[in-house]
Amino acid sequence: MTPSASVPEPPLDPEEWTDDEWISYLEQSDETFSDAFTQPVEPLLGKVTKSSGGQIIGNAMVGMAQAIYGKDKTEIAIVSEGQPASDDEPFKVTLDLDHPEDSTVVFRTPPQTESSSE
């Protein structure tokens, strides 16, 4: 959108105008250009990011970031304190952190209760 005829063109040398003239020019140009920005930005961004060109550029930017800074090596560990193991659990897990192949899981069969037979 171009400024209307009522808004004067600024001079080539900014020092030719006083501060009041600049303020007046800025106020008039704000009113003139205010209608140009009524369309929301989100639909335009969606068109760009979902296009094939946007996808290629986005992946290229991610690749460059990984090449410069390295991949994110943050490991997420969820640690919660559990209850102490009891003998009546249906299984027992023993983890060997130094030799994981030696870790074991032992399943216990529940004790058989005497059923009354008729």
TrEMBL record:
This is Unannotated protein. It comes from freshwater metagenome.
